[in-house]
Write a structure and sequence with these properties.
The chain is 42% helix and 14% strand. Helix 3 crosses helix 4. The strands form two sheets. The protein has a six-stranded parallel β-sheet. It has a two-stranded antiparallel sheet with strand order 2-3. The protein is of the alpha/beta class.
Amino acid sequence: MPQATSPDLARLAAVIFDLDGVLFDSFEYNVAFYDHIMASLGHPPVPEHLKGVVHRESVHGALRALVGEGPQFKKALEFCRNLDIQSFVARLKLFPGVHETLQALGRRFRLAVATNRISSARLALDELRLSDYFELVVTPTTAGVAKPDARFMDYTLERLALPRGQVVYVGDSSVDEALCLDAGVAMVAFRDRTLRAWAHAEAMAEIPPLLGLG
């Protein structure tokens, strides 16, 4: 079983963030988004046992869980591509201390986002006034693969021109755990102490001290 990687704090150069469940609570957003898609296909709302799945998976993964492969999947994916998501973005809820934490980290480290969100990633960052903190936003569209594929992290590191020992990734799910374990990148697990990670944080304000600030 892979072991969690530790960062080289003396040479740490960048902090990479997931979006959903880390910078903001998007559970309500995701369920409403996929409920809307299911209704458009003539299906009932997202069943209770799949709400966690659609919350953490990429669009492709969520749709496969909901409708399987085949014509329904293709129809749902096409509907997603043409859907105006602006009305759903208002359901995103910023976690306490995000701005203060990003300001503190940004004075010392480069900041980036690596998320399975696709077209809505930048829209969400703009809506919550977070865009200016990040020099790089990586999505499955830009990377060509989605988390937890290790190539997703490889692409992110290539864009940052940094070795894996000089970054940490802040994530909150088993998908993020698998990504970091496979890619050999140190992870700060946010609000989930069951995840195998270098460190754990229950609140944003705990992250800067973990990385040697304050």
